[in-house]
TrEMBL record, chains A, B:
The lineage of its organism: Bacteria, Bacillati, Bacillota, Bacilli, Bacillales. Keywords: Dioxygenase, Iron, Metal-binding, Oxidoreductase. The keyword Metal-binding applies. It comes from Paenibacillus antri. Involved in the biosynthesis of 5-hydroxyectoine, called compatible solute, which helps organisms to survive extreme osmotic stress by acting as a highly soluble organic osmolyte. Catalyzes the 2-oxoglutarate-dependent selective hydroxylation of L-ectoine to yield (4S,5S)-5-hydroxyectoine. This is Ectoine hydroxylase. Belongs to the PhyH family. EctD subfamily.
Length: 293, 293
């Protein structure tokens, strides 16, 4: 671990003029004895692919309650302007609502769900906390792309997350199909860090959450990753979950179908991996995007 | 059949202020005794669904020759400005090349391929001619959506095609995946005609081939069609083919993957269904978009 006194940047990005692919310097599954719902096979699949998909991780009752709350929250948020509510790049449709683990009772309870948290601990090998939470809506007809990216690249450069010891859970709250813009991942890409070019502009997050421009990997690196692997769409029904490593390359296509795509999104970070000063940005992002407590 | 003297518009569109869904007034498979590669089961599936998918319709040698010619044609077309070459909405990537059955030897031969033409005759029940041809390139990383549409809506309003007695063949010249923006269809939608709102602006085709704005069905009608059916992605490997009815509702999502998606596209019209004056447009579109001979 680096400390505040001796900060070594193991994953420099947005500092050079040319993109570069670096090897990962951290474990994927951290050795531990935590008990939880994941089997040995689950953990080795996660280690190899960088993600794990589980159908019906939550019960039908739990899922229905979350869907109701999601609908209520979406209706309540229409027309409201506050930083936590992000709109689609074109138009006024709500794209994401951040900090739901802080602001909403039911989603806070979900972020503390014992089955969920113990699975996360099995992977990260320590106690964990919520680094970021949000609900994503990909509306029918006009949901836009999320360009390919590694979350860690942003959390490292803009939030000061030192090591790769964090993961995301995407909990499906509507049925995913191959054609309504589901999550796409490049299995194995979590073992490579694509250093991106360009400097981070001040307050980049204000526009990057609508459409990302900085911290976007170059087409050459993406092709390199896909050529060595493949693309998968771990798309499931409402109530399913995808756990994915903080550094796996992922993105999603647009959605012109009438089927909206909604999910709840929690990022857990290890308590051993506390945030420091951002590695390539003037100021850390606000707390509703990256918990710094 | 209507004639030049007594033109009755069975499928009015772009004339009313409200969208409307009309029933189809024409057969899908026209009764006939033509011999060809399609079985009775193929023909009833086409009748019910409005499309038919066949893997490996062309041999590997034929497919390889077409792929080579496609690459040559794409390279040759870069930077060339002529009406037949359509660019992506944003940027200078080639999106389509029209009239390849007229301008290119190999694609002309493909449009006259006996297996292909006899299959088309089995469906349309008459001799046929090429109404339109093109090659589509959906480049990797930045291929944009094709919004949902019925081809017939445009051919009727802008080209003066009187009846639904035409079909398209999409011949895959690269491997299609669920995630690189393949064709999506709504099975059964070919039995309904969605009359669109708004008037056609003059020379609409000059922009509509890049991004369609007029003749776009409304979200209510699309939801109505999908609720009564489903969405399918008849995506196959290079050398596969999709035959689809002129009035089936179809579209495609964007493509952020590195895999480009290319196909050859032929529209065949029955010789009994000759073009007339456009039903909702000032002037017919030029010959490279709609053969009028």
């Amino acid at each position: 671990m680096t400390t505040k006194d001796t900060v070594i940047d193991l994953y420099p990005s947005r500092v050079e003029a040319q993109p570069r692919i670096l090897e990962r310097k951290d474990p994927v599954v951290y050795p531990n004895d935590f008990e939880g719902p994941l089997t040995k096979e689950d953990l080795s699949a996660y280690d190899a692919d960088g993600y794990l998909f589980a159908e019906a991780f939550f019960t039908e009752e739990e899922t229905a309650a979350l869907q109701n709350e999601l609908r209520r929250l979406l209706a309540e948020s229409r027309g409201v302007r506050k930083p936590e509510i992000i709109l689609e790049p074109e138009g006024d449709e709500v794209r994401s609502i951040f900090a739901v683990h802080r602001d909403n009772g039911l989603f806070r309870a979900l972020s503390e769900h014992p089955k969920l948290v113990s699975a996360v601990r099995q992977i990260l090998g320590s106690d964990v906390y919520v680094h970021q939470s949000r609900i994503n809506f990909k509306p029918g007809f006009k949901g836009k792309e999320f360009q390919w990216h590694s979350d860690f690249e942003t959390w490292h450069t803009e939030d000061g997350m030192p090591r790769m010891r964090a993961l995301s859970c995407s909990i499906a709250l509507s049925d995913n199909y191959p054609f309504n813009g589901p999550l796409m991942v490049i299995p194995g890409s979590h073992r490579h860090f694509v250093a991106c070019v360009g400097e981070t502009p001040e307050n980049n997050y204000e526009s990057s959450l609508r459409r990302q421009v900085f911290g976007v990997p170059d087409e050459g690196s993406l092709t390199w990753l896909v050529e060595r692997s493949r693309i998968e769409q771990p798309a499931g029904r409402a109530g399913s979950i995808v756990f994915f490593d903080c550094n796996i390359m992922h993105g999603s296509n647009s959605n012109i179908t009438p089927y909206p795509r909604s999910n709840a999104f929690f990022v857990y970070n290890s308590v051993e991996n506390k945030l420091q000063a951002p590695f390539a940005s003037q100021r850390p992002r606000p707390d509703y995007i990256a918990t710094r407590e």
